[in-house]
């Protein structure tokens, strides 16, 4: 219980006043949750009411193009770190740089890195639109991004500021993410991002004035008989000779359980053995 800064002579009065105070742990429990991923290998603090990571982030991070040991991986818009920490955990031989603009999320990101004892993750707190001030050009082998799904004005934003900024292009468009990636990527580097099908033409158009070209495409389906709800794009510098359309990723079997690939990528099979 925190001590009062003003001395109160009457003990009964002191008790009635101190009972209005909550411990830091109690306040934290009301505003944050600590969630386990990969069978408890990682634990992430995140806002209870604000932006929360989902399955899409873990899928983005758990299937990467080939990377050499010592490569630098940059995540643009890292939030509390689900993608960046997943990569750092699964690939301890690479260096991860997590970029986040919102101070509250950047604070959670740093805390999650520290509490998970990951030594191969660095944080850049700043606006990716200021790429020339934030980054050294042509230093990343891979850039990862889960940009806001909705263009400004496409839908009504959430009243929660964290969620609104994460889901809507209020402080950065698809083009801003692609330009930052193009600035960061080294020769033969990769940009991997996910976006809903409604943004497909926007994603392609965003790369139009860069030398990044679409190399691989994969659609995510909640079930095999349902339309794709998300698309994973891999662009490469320089242009790839041929576009590879990968087999679709199906999230759930007919009975509603995760498919074998999803279970493997989430570490569920290891946790059950």
Please give a structural write-up.
The chain is α/β, with parallel strands linked by helices. Helix content is 31%, strand content 25%. It is built from eleven helices and eleven strands. Helix 4 links the parallel strand 3 and strand 4. The chain is globular. The N terminus is likely disordered.
Please identify which CATH superfamily we are dealing with: Vaccinia Virus protein VP39
Number of strands: 11
**Beta-strand residue percentage:** 15-25%
Global shape: globular
The chain-level mean pLDDT equals: 85
Uncertain stretches of 5 or more adjacent residues? 1-22
Based on the model shown, name its key terms.
Rossmann fold, 273 residues, 11 helices, two-stranded antiparallel sheet
What is the compact description of this entry?
The protein has 273 residues and is of the alpha/beta class. The chain has helices at residues 11-18, 24-31, 55-61, 82-90, 103-115, 131-134, 161-167, 174-184, 200-206, 260-265, 268-272, and strands at 32-37, 42-47, 72-76, 95-100, 121-125, 140-145, 185-195, 213-221, 228-236, 244-245, 249-250. It has a single domain (50-272), classed as Vaccinia Virus protein VP39 (Rossmann fold), CATH 3.40.50.150.
Q: Layout of helices and strands, plus pairs?
A:
Layout: H1 11-18, H2 24-31, E1 32-37, E2 42-47, H3 55-61, E3 72-76, H4 82-90, E4 95-100, H5 103-115, E5 121-125, H6 131-134, E6 140-145, H7 161-167, H8 174-184, E7 185-195, H9 200-206, E8 213-221, E9 228-236, E10 244-245, E11 249-250, H10 260-265, H11 268-272
Parallel strand pairs: 3-4, 3-6, 4-5, 6-7, 8-10, 8-11
Antiparallel strand pairs: 1-2, 7-9, 8-9
Helix pairs in contact: 3-4, 8-9
């Amino acid at each position: 219980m925190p001590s009062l800064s003003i001395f109160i002579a009457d003990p009964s009065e002191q008790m009635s006043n101190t009972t209005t105070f909550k411990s830091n742990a109690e306040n934290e429990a009301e505003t944050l949750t600590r969630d386990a991923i990969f069978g408890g290998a990682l634990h992430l603090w995140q806002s209870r009411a604000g932006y929360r990571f989902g399955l899409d982030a873990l899928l983005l991070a758990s299937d990467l193009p080939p990377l050499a040991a010592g490569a630098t991986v940059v995540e643009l818009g890292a939030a509390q770190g689900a993608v960046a920490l997943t990569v750092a955990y699964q690939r301890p031989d690479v260096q991860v740089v997590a970029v986040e603009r919102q101070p509250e999320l950047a604070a959670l990101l740093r805390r999650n890195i520290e509490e998970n004892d990951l030594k191969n993750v660095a944080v850049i707190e700043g606006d990716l639109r200021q790429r020339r001030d934030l980054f050294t050009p042509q230093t990343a082998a891979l850039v990862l991004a889960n940009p806001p799904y909705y263009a400004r004005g496409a839908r009504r934003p959430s009243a929660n500021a964290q969620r609104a900024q994460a889901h809507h292009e209020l402080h950065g468009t698809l083009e801003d993410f692609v330009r930052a990636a193009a600035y960061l990527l080294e020769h033969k580097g990769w940009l991997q991002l996910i976006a809903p099908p409604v943004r497909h033409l926007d994603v392609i158009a965003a790369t139009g004035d860069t030398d990044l070209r679409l190399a691989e495409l994969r659609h995510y389906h909640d079930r095999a008989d349902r339309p794709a709800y998300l698309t994973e794009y891999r662009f490469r510098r320089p242009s790839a000779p041929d576009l590879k359309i990968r087999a679709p990723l199906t999230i759930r079997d007919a009975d509603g359980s995760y498919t074998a690939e999803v279970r493997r990528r989430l570490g569920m099979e290891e946790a059950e053995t």
